[in-house]
Amino acid sequence: MKYELPDLLEAAKADAPAPRYGVEDAVTAGRRLRNRRRTAWTGVVAAAAVVAVAAAIALPRLMFGEDRAAPPAVTPAIPGPGLTATIKGYDAGRFTVTEAVQVSPGYQIAQIYDPRKKRDVIVGGVARDRSTTLTYAPGWIVPPVGTVTAYRRGAFDPAAFTAGAEVPINGVPGRAVADAVAFPYADDTWAVVRTSESALTKEELITVAAGLRFTAPRTLKVSFRLPEVPAGYALDSGGTASHADGSFSMPKGSYLRLLKGEVSYTGLPDVLDDPQTAGADVQVIEVMVYPRRYAAENPSAGPSFCVAEESRCYRDTADGKVQIEARGGRGTSTAELLDVVNGAVPADPDDPATWYPLTEAVG
Amino acid sequence: MTDIETEFRHFVGAQMEHLRGLAYLTCGDWQAAEDAVLTVLARMYVKWPRITGPVGYARTAVVRAAIDETRRPWWRRERSVSHAMPERALPDGTASVDERLRLRAALRQLPVKLRAVLVLRFLEGLSVRQTAETLGCPEGTVKAYTSRGLETLRQVLGVELSLDGQEGHHEVRTA
Questions:
Q1: Are B174 and B96 found together in one domain?
Q2: Are A130 and A269 in contact (CB under 8 A)?
Q3: For A157, which residue in chain B has the nearest alpha carbon?
Q4: Which of A17, A88, B101, B133 is the Cys-Cys partner for A215 at CB 3.0 to 4.6 Å?
Q5: Same domain, B73 and B104
């Protein structure tokens, strides 16, 4: 008997089990990887070796609001003007939701923490590209297990949730998909509770969603300011999260995103964590400041250095307390990034009283 | 949805199943294969605007990732074996199933790189040079692995193997 090898190979995989992953899983995994890589270059998960250990730890006081009372039902929307935040911190089951930590023209983001969450030990290591090797010291952080995003009216398009199961959120019909719950908290004004790494069950997502409430508009404070920015750039968004999507925060760190050009915050399927990937004809500079313990070792003799291939520049402050990092997208020059890190004025990361109002942090 | 994401989604929708099969034939475990494919697709998402030939890129990356899956330390590989290739063909009462299991058992006899070479050459239809580039090894290695792999399959299966349509029209017959 004679067999065609190609046919045999086809036959060997012919009874494949149902796939565990689909297109959306690939997109989600890609987004997470992109965010982790950004973080890695800041030094927090430099070696990409994150090992869980058993000790739960107290969360930084900085991350929480003052009122920890049990949350009431969803209150009417109070989006607040401009870059102000209104999400109030609350507890939901065993989870703690922070006040808003990130604000953009289209939404505000709070983070969900699980006090029982094992802290992640960040093993130090190196990150290399063709021209530069950066070394990071060991450290650890507590990652949030999810986010709560409250969109402004018209900013969110719930189309991706229409196929999800209907779930009541305080009597309002919401929709649940694999890792998120979306619900209108006012007319055409939506909130999304999303979990990372499936840390919350659907029921827990609903519990967190039901606890959402708002307070009077307040202006976030950030730990640095930019007296000057490259020509054409303006403040877009910022806060104390370390990513635009609010998925991660380095303690005592802050983040600002500058845009050159216009983006639309209308009908978004998700938070706008990369305007260029979203197709907007804009240029982007992201700036982060974080304590030196999370920073890359400076491979240069001077205070500033750049990794041009990655479109990143860094500066260590003279007192050694913090590192400033600027990241560019397509079309951003290394010279512009260098100007940004050299011009940044950090506050004292240990003294929030010295921090700057977000709306006054640029210019 | 952005144009870039739309492109990526279309690519994944069209290629994911094929890549899953490619990874499975290489590493012999459906779960590991799916993990390898997801890992590769996540990386491709990050660099999508810079990838000019996504099909070839994905094929190369998936085969390499599937090979890596077989090299993980035991504690990283510990997982359900429900989808793993059986160690030996089990009687099933259905001829086609039994034959499939027998072929899988035969493939399992091959070291992972030999398996990868056969899959790339005779399922993907790559030339010796293309296979060498995909696996990052010399062409001579590909030729040697092809010969050894085919010989092993011939011995284990005890059948003739026709490789119609492939470079050089190989044919291996029972001794």
A1: yes
A2: no
A3: B1
A4: A88
A5: no
- Chain B hits for A19, CB-CB cut-off 8 Å, are 16-17, 20, 34
> Residue A355 and residue A342: Cα distance in Å, rounded?
18
Residue range A269-294, pLDDT digits in tens: 889 887 876 667 899 999 999 887 76
- Give the tens place of pLDDT for each residue, A170-219: 888 999 987 899 999 888 899 999 987 677 899 999 999 999 999 989 99
Are the C-beta atoms of residues A53 and B43 closer than 8 Å to each other? no
What is the total residue count of chain B? 175
Beta bridge partners, A268, equal A156
Looking at the structure, do residues B71 and B131 belong to the same domain, yes or no? no
**A-B C-beta contacts closer than 8 Å:** 118
Q: Are residues B92 and B49 in the same domain?
A: no
- Last-in-domain residue among B26, B54, B84: B84
Q: What is the rounded CA–CA span in Å between residue A152 and residue A40? A: 31
The CA-based angle A71-A151-A259, given to 5 degrees, is 130
Q: Does some domain include residue A251?
A: yes
Cβ pair A183, A149 in contact under 8 A: no
Both B20 and B102 in one domain: the answer is no
ipTM, interface predicted TM-score of the complex: 0.77
Q: Which residue segment(s) compose the domain that A150 sits in?
A: 47-360
Report the domain count for chain B.
Answer: 2
**Pairwise CB contact (< 8 Å): B25 & A23:** no
Query: How many domains are contained in chain A?
Result: 1
CB atoms within 10 A of CB A198: 10
Is B38–A25 a contact, with Cβ atoms under 8 angstroms apart?
A: yes
Q: What are phi and psi of A227, to 5 degrees?
A: -60, -35
Query: Does one domain contain both B74 and B137?
Result: no
Domain that holds residue B27: 1-84
Q: Name the pTM for this structure.
A: 0.57
Q: Are residues B171 and B92 in the same domain?
A: yes
B122 lies within 8 A of chain A by CB: yes
Q: Give the gap in angstroms from C-alpha B45 to the nearest C-alpha of chain A.
A: 5
pLDDT per position in chain B (175 positions), as tens? 567 788 899 999 999 999 999 999 998 888 888 888 998 998 898 888 778 788 988 998 999 888 877 654 332 332 322 233 333 333 343 445 666 777 777 887 788 888 899 989 988 888 898 898 888 888 888 898 888 888 888 887 777 776 654 443 343 333 3
CATH number at residue B170: 1.10.10.10
